[in-house]
Amino acid sequence: MRIDVVSIFPEYLAALDLSLIGKARQDGLLDLNVHDLRDFTTDRHRTVDDTPYGGGAGMVMKAEPWAQALTSVADAEEAARPVLIVPSPAGAVFTQAMAYELAEEKHLVFACGRYEGIDERVLEWAGERFDVRPVSLGDYVLNGGEVAVLAMVEAIGRLVPGVVGNPESLVEESHSDGLLEYPVYTKPSSWRDRGVPDILLSGNHGKIAQWRRGQQLQRTAARRPDLLEKLDPTQLTKADKAT
Ligand SMILES: Nc1cc(-c2ccc3ccn(Cc4ccc(CN5CCCCC5)cc4)c3c2)n[nH]1
Predict the structure, then answer these.
(1) What are the angstrom distances between the C-alpha of 9 and each of 115, 137, 220?
(2) What is the pLDDT of residues 48-67, one digit of tens each?
(3) Fewest CB within a 10 Å sphere: which of 36, 143, 166, 195?
């Protein structure tokens, strides 16, 4: 998978050189390229913003540097129509389902806005060449798109085959079955007078799986009842309903 990120703060994305995603880049599993939007300006001051039409606070990102940058990255990979993900408070909320879907794509391009956002005409213009997706990380306002891109690249990248050593660990995670995950414990078995649930020390894997499922349901009911509402009834077994 090829990923291109365009930002006026390319150093913000340095964290993607580390750990799993960094190793995947070295292994050639992820071809991740970060670009400085200012490299696509033509004036001496490398201007990327200007005042908003209609007034209002702050500045808006100019369209032309984005058009130059996006054309350059689209040409870099002849793969089918790249997906252009534009972090925005006004986007569809990013979910694990979206991460799975995007992990199948050949070419992802992330446009990191700053200031008060990007001139809307860029998203309209990009529609010819890209599958344009405004995406929100959640219902809170960040100062720009970079933090959202770090989160999304990590969530998507770890689903690309070979990136996570043991694919087993991708199966039982939160949200992959529509529920929150169960609690985990490790040695010592007694820590500051706190023990580990006996069932986990029993070696009875059937009962352990049952207990873990019960914990998922209890946690989800307590912390995210909205997820329970969304559950497809076929995803709940008879035993679940007895919990
Ligand atoms: N999930 C999530 C993603 C983002 C995100 C993503 C991308 C950018 C680019 C800039 N910002 C900062 C910003 C966004 C909005 C405003 C308010 N708004 C501006 C337009 C006119 C009306 C009022 C102010 C500043 C961004 C914020 N935040 N949260």
Answers:
(1) 12, 19, 37
(2) 999 999 999 999 999 999 99
(3) 166
Nearest atom within ligand 1 for CA of residue 87: 6
Cα–ligand 1 centroid distance for 54 (angstroms): 17
DSSP β-bridge partners for residue 191: 194
- For CA atoms 104, 175, 84, 165, the dihedral sign is negative
Torsion of CA 200, 163, 142, 137, to 10 degrees: -70
Distance CA 69, CA 6 (A): 7
Token representation of residue 160: 């690309």
The structure tokens listed for 163 are 């990136």
**82-108 confidence digits (pLDDT tens):** 999 999 999 999 999 999 999 999 999
The tokens for 54 are: 């209609």
Average pLDDT of the segment spanning 213-218: 98
65 with 48: CB under 8 angstroms?
Answer: yes
In this structure, which residue's CA is closest to atom 29 in ligand 1? Answer: 141
Q: Separation of 165 CA from ligand 1 center, angstroms? A: 36
User: For residues 181 and 173, what is the distance between their CA atoms, to the nearest angstrom?
Assistant: 6
Do the beta carbons of residue 170 and residue 176 sit within 8 Å? yes
* Ligand 1 center to 114 CA (angstroms): 7
Nearest CA to ligand 1 atom 17: 116
Tokens representing 14?
């340095």
Residues with CB under 6 A from ligand 1: 87-89, 113-114, 116-117, 136-138, 140-145, 148
Question: Which candidate, 213, 139, 137, places its Cα nearest to that of 179?
Answer: 213
